[in-house]
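Contributing: when you submit paired examples, paste them exactly as shown. First protein:
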Amino acid sequence: MEEKDEMMTVNENAAEQKTKKAKKEKKEKKPVDKAKRKKIRRVVLAVVAVVLIASFSVSRMAAANAPVMVPTTPALTGEVEQTVNTSGTVVANTSKSYFSEVKVKIGKVNVAVGDAVKAGDVLIEYDADELAKEKQLAELSLKTGEGNYKNSIQNNNQMLGDLNEANVNLAVLDQQIADTEAYIKGLEEKIEQKKSDLAHFGALLQISILDWQDQPDSDEYMNLQKMVQLNSWEQNNNEEIRGWQDELDVYNKMLSDYKEYRSEMKSQKSSAEAGKLTSGAKEEIEATNQTKEIQAQDTIDSLANVENGIKADFDGVVTDVKAVEGASVADSSELLKLESTQDVSVKVYVTKYDLEKISQGQDAVVTVAGKEYKGKVGKINKMAEKNNSGAAVVGTEVEILNPDSDIVLGVEAKIAISTARVTDCVMVPVSVVNVDMDGEFVYVVENGVLAKRRVVTGISSDTMVQISEGLAEGEGVVTSVSAGMTEGMAVMAMQ
C-alpha cells in the first residue's frame, strides 16, 4: 500500500513538471505570423481531407453499399474579370534632341545623363560675353544691308514713277478705247437695224399695194400710197438715225484722242524702262538684301532664344549629353537629349493567343517599382516579330495615364490588361470545369449519384469562370473526383 502511494506521488510530480515545462515553452514560443498560420491551416486541412477521403475509400471497400464522400462547393454570383498579364519596358513617347542655334562658346552644363528635370529648368548656359558680341555683329550686318538696298531703290524711284504713271494711264486708256469702240459698234448696229426695219416695212407696203391695185379708187389703196411715200422719206430723214449718227461722230473723235494719248504714254513707258534697273538687276538686289536680312534676323532671334540658356520643354530624364563646358560649338551641333516622363508607355509583346483578347482603349493596371498606375492599351502593331525563342509576338504599347516623378524609364513594368468583365453572373472555380468530346461539363451530385452536368462557360479569371448556362446560384459542384470514380456511382456531397 505504501509502495502504491509512493508511485502515485512520483507520477503526480512528473505530471506537474511536464505541465510547468509545457507552460514555459508556450510562453517562450514566438507568435506565428498570419501568412504562416494561414499556410499551416491549409496544410492541416489538406491532410485532414486526405485522411477523410482515404478513410471513406477504405470504408467503401469495406462496405460496398456505402456512398463515397465527395467535396463540393456552391456556384456563386459575382463578378468575373478576364485579364491578360504580361510585362514590358517603360519607354518615353516624347523625346527631344537639343541642337545649338548659335556659334557661341558653352558657358555651363547644368545636367548629366540620368538627371530628372522639370519643364523650364535651364539645361545649358552660353558664355554671356560672346552672346553680346555676336548680337552686336548681327545688328550691324542688318543695318548695312538695309542701307545698301535703300540707296539702290532711291536711284531707281524716279524712273519707276514715270513707268508707273505710264502703266496706270495705259491701262485706263486701253479700257476707255475698248469701251468706246464697243459703244461705236453698238451705235452702228442700231443705225443699220433701224434702216433695215424701215426698208422691210417699205417692202411690206409694196406687197400690200399690189393686193389693192385692182381697186385704185379705194381708201385702202390711197392710204397705202401715202404710207409708201412716208416710209421712203423716213429711210432718208429718220430723226432717231440722225441722232445716232451725230453721237457716232462725237465718239469717233473721242476714240481718236484716246489713241493719240495712248501713243504718248507708250513713249513715256519706253523711256522709263530704258532708264530703270533691269528686272534681273532688281531681283538680284532684292534677293541679296532679303538674304542678308533673314540671316541677320535669324541670328538675332537665335541669340535671344538662348540668352537665358537652353530650357527643358517638358518634365523628363536626360539620356545623352554631348555639350562640353568652355567648348565652342557650331550651328546644328547636338547638345543633349531629353526623354519625357509625362508622356510614357510600357512596350510589351503579346502572343497570338493574347492578341485576340486585347484591343485599343482597354483599361490596364501598370505596376512600376511596386507602385500602381492607371493604363490604357494604345498602339497595337500590325506586323509580328520573332522573340528570342523564335515565337511570333506583336508589339503593343500600354499608355500610363497618371505618370509621376517616381516613373523610371527603361525599367521593367508589370501589366494587367482588363480584357473583359461580367457582373452578377454565376461562377465557379476554374478547376471544376472539365472537357470531353461533347464539350464542357462539371460533376454534380444528383439523387445521391455522381452525374455530369453540361455547362456553357463565358470569360474566366485566374481562379473563377463564368457559367452562362447549366448551373444556378447555390447549386453544388464536385471539386475533386478521385481515380476510379465514375458517373452514376453512389456518392455523398461534402460541403
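Second protein:
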Amino acid sequence: MQNYKNLETIAVQSGYDPQNGQSRVPPIVQSTTYAYDDAQAMADLFDLKAVGHFYTRLSNPTVEFLEKKMAALEGGIGAMGTASGQSATSAVVMTLCNAGDHIVSTGTVYGGTSNLLGHSFEKLGIKTTFVDQTASEDEIFAAVQPNTKMIFAESLSNPSVKVLDFEKFSNVAKRAGIPFVVDNTFPTPFLCRPIDFGANIVVHSTSKYSDGHACALGGMVIDAGNFDFASSDKFPSFNTPDPTYHGLVYTKTFGNAAFIVKARTHVMRDFGMMMSPMNAWLTNMNLETLPLRMERHSQNAEKLAQFFSQHPNVDWVNYPSLPTSADRDLAKKYLKACSGVMTFGPKGGRQGAEKVMNKLKLAKIVTHVADTRTCVLHPASTTHRQLSDDEQRATGILPELIRVSVGIEHIDDIIADFSQALS
C-alpha cells in the first residue's frame, strides 16, 4: 500500500490495494465468520498472536478497508469502525475510564454526547465536568481532578459551530498527563486534522460528512499513537497483565498502538458495537468524493451566511468565517474552510423559527445533518430537548436557533428557498 501525501488522493486510493485479477472496487465481505485450515491458526488469532479476521464483531475485511482510509486521512496509526458516532465516543470512554473516574469536556458538545457523558456514564460511575471552551487555560485546567482520564471536545461544535482552540486544550491535556480526544465530525480531515494540533484520539460520526449521503450509520475511532501510555501511572490496565488474554500487557506487546488494540480486543469484543460491512462499504465509496463535497458545502455555506447577515428578518447568524464571528481568527488558524453547518435566529423568537421552517420547500426538516441535501433543524425542541432550558443555553442553544446544514445544490436555489421563507 502506497503512502500518499495529498488528502484528495488518499480519499480515493487508500485502504484497499487490489492485486492481480482482484476487483477494482473494494468488495463487500458480508460474512460473520471466517474459515481456517487448522485449530492452531484460530487459537493464535484468539490470543492476539496473529493478525486476521475470525468474527465480524471484532473485525471484517470491508470495515478494515474503511478503517485504513480514515486512519490515513486523519494521520493516525490505526482506526476502529463502530456502529455509530455515539458508539465511537462510548468505546473511547470505556477504554480509558473505569467506575470512579472523571472526564473534562467542553460544554458545547452535541446534545446526544452531552447526555451520554453527563447522565448515562454518570450512572456507571464516570462523572463529567463541562467547561466553557472560551475560558482560559488555567480555568480549564482547574476542572481536572486526580482521577480525570481524558479531555473531550469537538473541533466544530454541534450545533453552535464554535471553533476549538486546539492549542489551549492540548496544553491542558499535557499538563494533566491525559489523552486529548477530539470529535472531528463536522470539519472532516479534509478541513481539519486534530492530530496535527495535538490531539491523541479522534472520533467521528461517519454518518455525517464521511458518508455524506444520509444512507449509512457509522462511527470511527482513530488513534494518533502519540500518547505514552507506557510511562503513565493513570492507566494501569494498559501496563498490567490482562487475564482475559493470558497475561498480555498491551503497551509491551503493541507499543504505541496499545490504545486502538485494547479498544478493539477488549471493548469491542465485550460490548459488540461493530460497524456493519454494508455501511462500511457505502461510507468507503462515498469518502472518495469527500474533498469535492467539503469544498462545495463550505462555499455554499459562506454565501448563505452572508445572505442571512444582510436580511432584515434575521436577528443574528453564526458562521465562523463571517467578520462578525468571535471565532474567525481560530477558524483561520485551524480550518481550511468552515464546513457546511451554521445557525441563525430569525426575528420572532421560537414562533418565528417555526414559521420559517414550515415555509421552506427545498430545505427539509430532518434530524440528520451534514449530507448532500440542504436541511434544517430546531435543536431546542429536538436534539437538545432532553436538556433543561438552562442546560440548553449553556450549550449555546437559544429558543429561536435554527441549525442549517447547507447541501451541495446550486447556491441560488438554496438562497431563493430561504428568501421566500423569511419574507
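If you have annotations for the second protein, write them as plain sentences, like these:
Residues 290-309 form the longest helix (20 residues).
Residues 6 and 90 are 31 Å apart (CA to CA).
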